[in-house]
Automatic annotation (TrEMBL):
Catalyzes cross-linking of the peptidoglycan cell wall at the division septum. It is found in: Cell inner membrane; Membrane. Pfam families: PBP_dimer, Transpeptidase. The chain crosses the membrane at residues 24-46. Belongs to the transpeptidase family. FtsI subfamily. This is Peptidoglycan D,D-transpeptidase FtsI. Residues 125-143 form the HTH cro/C1-type domain.
Amino acid sequence: MNRATATASIRAQRYAHVLKLERWRVWTMLTALMLLFVVLLARGLWLQAFNEAFLQGQGDARYTRTLKTEANRGMITDRNGDPLAISTPVQSIWASPRGMALLPPGQKRDEDWEPANDKDPVPVSQDELKKLANALGMPAADLIKKVSDGRKNDKGELVRPDFVWVKRGLSPTDAKSVLALNVPGIYAQTEYRRYYPAGEVMAHIIGFVNIDGKGQEGFELTRDSMLAGKPGSRTVIRDRRGYIVEDISTIVPPRDGETLTLSVDRRIQYLAYRELKAAVESNHAAGGGIVVLDAKSGEVLALANAPSYNPNSRERIDPAARRNRALTDIYEPGSVMKPVTISAVMDAGKLTPESRVDTFNGTMAIGPNTIHDTHHGGVLSIAQVIQQSSNVGAARISLMMPREYMWNAYHNAGFGEVPHSGFPGEAGGILRNWKNWRPIEQATMAFGNGISVSLMQMARAYQMFADGGQIHPITFTKLVAPVPGKQVIKPETALAMRNMMESVVQPGGTGMPARVVGYRVAGKTGTSHKLEGGVYVNRYVASFIGMAPASDPRLIIAVMIDDPTGGKHFGGSVAGPVFSNVMAGSLRLLGVPPDAPTDNILIPAPDESDSRE
């Protein structure tokens, strides 16, 4: 083999070796690429098949938003359709801090500024925020803090939120002027603000809602789900600046709340609140409450407390003024309990209105304790025990019956259990088990000491005298027809007691200031000492509960004045005039015909020293 042939052979072998090496590299690279492609394909399939929800969520978080469409909260009206709570549309201003880049003080945004990418926040100067704060009526420092605050993530980076409220509840006109400033990252959302036309007059019945429209007190709280309705929704795609690009789902319309019609009569409510407030102020009292019931149905026509508050100005509400004294406060009722006690004994056949009881000249000893009357009455008829409000007479009558019988009588009258009116926080009072009663306790309960009740419970109990011995369930909802009542005492007992209670407002009785021109009134006064540290002190709760027209009662009104310090403290002289004024006005408003001469003249109230309570 010559040299040329050998060289060619060597070259051919080298070429074959290089070609073989290159093929191996090609196949290796191709195999690697194929494997990578398979891995990527598998990864893509896995993400699509098993992790789709996560990816979809991440995408939605960047581009989609579900906008809530507020439902219009249902209206609350009185029994005649007059609005007591309505919702009006307002605009609330919000910001997207994540989409804003706050510039240093004095620096302005370049007019030709363009974003580098979709995630690039829009520069906002502090001068723009100051103008915005001025339009919103808030300090500029507070606004700057709202849009610059955030939290640090795991990497220590400051992450600002997508959404923060700036100011809520603006009128549409004010919101329009705010948006006209065209501050990047500032938007408006339609909401509803609750408005209460009756203000403080209805505050303790209606209650109020918070800034988010959730009920906080009264029927705004108890009927929140009914009134709130159900908000709608709308899912959209937004660009970096927050503008809506398109809707990507069906719009779900909101379902507005239902209208709640109460049993309350706004006219009677205003009258009751006006008279109660005047009495609390004139008697320098700590507070007071009043309840007006329909005697035939148990509907609450009015319920007021003093002091009250304006639910339209929630930020300045005194917590003490929010107390619904008529429903949530309990007290020892005093002599207004005597008709309940005596009627129970009469119903057992032990007494008649003509029966007589010796009051021992106004003093009665039970063990180491002594019961006193203000006046020494001697032997009194049952009617005189009611008229002159004899503690001794009521105690002796109660002790005629076993403890268990009297406990059942009080319990059947609704004491010791909540009235179930549907109102939040109503009190059930205190009626201890009869097995633990001592004779002195049975005696004192007869005239309202040693038992605790709410004013609503007392008003409810007096239904038995107004409607043939029946007690109807208390309701704040307007009824189409009365709910059947519970028979507590016999109809003849109820009529006899009502006739005896008429004497309370006649000459010689303790409640003459409660008389009403043109109408017969049956009622009872009450004056109870307050307990402080387990000891009775010279501070009082004055009350009057009555009904009219006595011939066929239409209304029951219960009045309670807490701790009067203006020189008078007896129920007849403090609570009686409130009853008289409210009853007179209410009967006229309802068109109830008189059942007594309309030209009679009210006799001036007796002097405090002549009171027999």
